[in-house]
């Protein structure tokens, strides 16, 4: 919509799992290193924690690509809205077991155990990823606990990674929390990371000259709390508004006008801000 106006070859601020826009700042670099550590060191269970929008799913996507490049096998299951039986079926499908819709759980479990044992004997690294685990029902939690307890050999060639919102960690993972080898944090960006994130993504999209003023970058971080998903939303709306107003750059007032409008703060005159941009 605004890409051509700002000299961009693509829209960078989209809340999608597209590794073209992955920003590996210090905090996320550390998270990736820890995810790779539990795989390379043959640990059984790692938990990736972070609040909504901090980039957990993107980090899992980066992990998946790294394992595949090393000739490992990765299955990524989104447990949101799925029952325990559905998660087991998705896992079987991800392991290329060609499950049928009417296969009973006991049949699927037998096949899953067989392929995991085969990979263990063949030294094929297998990573089972379960995303959005804060939405897991009790049966789903039991299924993951069963997988963890199946995985008793040392060194193990099956690593399980669960991604969950930090506030839901204790409740969602209580059946296997005592077996967690490593808890990995996906924190919000620092102010410097937020600034570099915005500049880096715009550069990848073809923009070399500054587009957000320094004060606008600071305002973006303050309003978003450094959460990538919220940064994307604010950048996207601000670029659209600045284009509509004929502004040559995105200022702090343009960024702030949206937050004020959403919060019902009438002290901000959005039309006046945009007309003077």
TrEMBL record:
InterPro entries: AAA_22, ExeA_AAA_ATPase_DNA-bind, P-loop_NTPase
Domain called ORC1/DEAH AAA+ ATPase: residue spans: 41-150
MF (Gene Ontology): ATP hydrolysis activity
The protein's name in its UniProt record: ORC1/DEAH AAA+ ATPase domain-containing protein
Source organism (scientific name): Symmachiella dynata
Organism placement in taxonomy: Bacteria, Pseudomonadati, Planctomycetota, Planctomycetia, Planctomycetales
